[in-house]
Automatic annotation (TrEMBL):
Entry cofactors: Mg(2+)
Record function comment: Poorly processive, error-prone DNA polymerase involved in untargeted mutagenesis. Copies undamaged DNA at stalled replication forks, which arise in vivo from mismatched or misaligned primer ends. These misaligned primers can be extended by PolIV. Exhibits no 3'-5' exonuclease (proofreading) activity. May be involved in translesional synthesis, in conjunction with the beta clamp from PolIII.
Recorded catalytic activity of this chain's protein: DNA(n) + a 2'-deoxyribonucleoside 5'-triphosphate = DNA(n+1) + diphosphate
Coiled coil: none
Name listed for the protein in its UniProt record: DNA polymerase IV
Amino acid sequence: MAVNASPGICRDCLSRPQPGVRRCPACGSPRVLHHEELSSLAIAHIDCDAFYAAIEKRDNPALRDKPLIIGGGKRGVVSTACYIARINGVRSAMPMLKALEACPQAVVLKPDMEKYARVGRQVREMMLALTPLVEPLSIDEAFLDLSGTQRLHGAEPAMVLARFAARVEKEIGITVSVGLSYCKFLAKVASDRDKPRGFSVIGRGEALSFLAGQPVTTIWGVGKTFAATLARDGIRTIGQLQRMERAELMRRYGTMGERLYSLSRGQDTRAVKPQGAAKSVSSETTFDHDIAALEDLVPVLRALSERVSARLKKADIAGRTVVLKLKSADFRIRTRNRQLGDPTRLADRIFRTGLDMLKREVDGTRFRLLGIGVADLTDAAKADPPDLVDTLSHKRALAEGAIDSLREKYGRQAVETGYTFARARNARPQRDR
């Protein structure tokens, strides 16, 4: 990070310290940001710090100084962990048993996705107040393009982002980390450099030298498997990729070679694209114990179908394709789908379609995860027309509407179907997508 003759930004009091100042004269904070390209960069990546855990600590101050893991049951995986737990070796997507071995004193809470979604929408609305060019990546992170917004906000993007981070912390009670650069790739890399409460900048002038020393896994799309392939070819750092020709990389790695060539040199022309329509709605759960029997899987499938249906109805959308997901005890995933004649948003129809597919998969295999969802989303106006073949479908739809009304008035647990009654422990979905 270079220092030039332009004033910096104090990320606590938002004053403008002079060049070279390491501690803010106005408030004494050491969180002073200087960079020679600070006033000219406009592509940002914003990532909420330990999002689920941060919300739970905000809502329960007794958890503030304790290691906290958000995840589902002993057989589930870690959704996220606070930074205290991470210091003890806990990582996202780690099996819960391993996480508790690494940090046995941790407090474990099941995810409250509805609460997290509400907070995520609050943060998203604050982003959209800065620029319409917001591209969400998940519930807690997004790219922003603030090009051309300086006149609107009366400040360059760096100051606008510093104000945003301070406002989120004050008004919502969680923290964010900001990465600022000239392209999406480096903005995302920057946001990971100084967590939590970070604000990191990578400019054009330093991109090549900065990237040269980074591992190849820094590049988007290079996971453990592909990194092992590169390592077998003697390539472990981005600097080694920078010394290779485009043709050689493409000959070895096909279209991925083109990405390696461009991103290793800090070349990323992807634009920040506002959020498009959702492609699917689904819900899944990981069991505390592996399940093989159909009679034990059916109530879970019904509960998941009801959860998906509720979300479709709330959003006033429907889906034409029902997708079933199963994960076996050895972590092998089975995905099955079936296209319907007309779009649906009814739990009954989603469940019956999923059940028909599930029956074909029950063969003695023990499953650790079950999920159901719908894809090919569309407006709900044409959903679920009368079925001339299944004459009882209309009565089931009317019954489902009555159940929905009761649940809206008295809560979701007010009415249960025979499929889920007395089986609520196994039937509660743990995660939505």
